[in-house]
Amino acid sequence: MATLELRNVNKSYGSGLADTLKNIELSIDSGEFLILVGPSGCGKSTLMNCIAGLESISGGAILVDGADISGMSPKDRDIAMVFQSYALYPTMNVRDNIAFGLKMRKMAPAAIDEEVARVAKLLQIEHLLQRKPGQLSGGQQQRVAMGRALARRPKIYLFDEPLSNLDAKLRVEMRTEIKLMHQRLKTTTVYVTHDQIEAMTLGDKVAVMKDGIIQQFGTPQQIYNDPANLFVASFIGSPPMNFIPVRLQRRDGQCWAVLSSSLGVAGQARCELPLGELEAGMDNRDLILGIRPEQIQLAADDGAEAPSICAEVEVTEPTGPDTLVFVNLNQTKVCCRLAPDMTPQVGSTLSLRFEPSRVLLFDAQSGERLLAKKRQATDNKVAQLKRG
């Protein structure tokens, strides 16, 4: 196990070209599982290759256990990588594929046999050791590729979108296998994916990337509940967060956001959400209100004072574990995640409740998150406590 730290890492492919990686700063403790997540072309695989030594960095430093490995060759970094394409040797059987790296390190034959047996048992591929890669399914080939990396017992494992070539069912199974494997081995791991579900379920820490920049770095819960900007909020979560355009109004010392919906012949429904006190200059400013589908609840006669609004059902999508209901608020399609036994008819009216404390606000132009003063003060206090 090892700590991994990236200090101001940059990557450029030449003068006049935009940097592929820009001032990457992150660190993970020994044994942690780091997810690099983002859309295609965001730089996550390039960053992975830089950690492995397959590509050189243009600036900054990569440290393992406090030692700078930026100038080392890949073979000297004690890092094992599992590729998206598996990269198995087609003429070798499974046993020889797993043992290949050990033979290159001139391990004793008895030690190689012991290590291959250990890895095969861990990955439940003992019965496949004499087969060639062409005789294996995609999931079996992925296990062999993982086994080859595991046999080396490196300081750090790197996984570059290892499940992207598998079907949906097998991806779920292999995701569980990878998590169980990490729980057993406790080896520091960096995992690249564009799948936000993998990011949420596998990672101890998540770095969300866009255009070569880390947009936010934190635990899955922090990324999900407190996104730093519109991009992070939209990328993490399935179904994605709702984004509703609003214009703030100031009254009685605090700001309010107005929601409205059309009810056909019944006219229009209206709701005001109290948002606390925001910084000066926000009056009558166009902002984006963000709220996740599961945080919009049905209003009930339970005495709750949270604001509610009536809205007409436009589409329902039963998914099994829940029902997605789509309504229109502020001329924007809004998704509500309801219980599976809730199947309202299209055209019917629902009374929806919004909890102001769960509502997020974003600047419509910059996409940056806005915090009420009370919330900002709380966050600052927490940050001070963390710094000691």
From TrEMBL:
GO terms for cellular component: ATP-binding cassette (ABC) transporter complex, substrate-binding subunit-containing. Residues 4-236 form the ABC transporter domain. It comes from Pseudomonas sediminis. It holds the Pfam family TOBE. GO terms for biological process: carbohydrate transport. NCBIfam families: PRK11650.1. The lineage of its organism: Bacteria, Pseudomonadati, Pseudomonadota, Gammaproteobacteria, Pseudomonadales. GO terms for molecular function: ABC-type transporter activity; ATP binding; ATP hydrolysis activity. CDD domains: ABC_MalK_N (cd03301). This is ABC transporter ATP-binding protein. Keywords: ATP-binding, Nucleotide-binding, Transport.
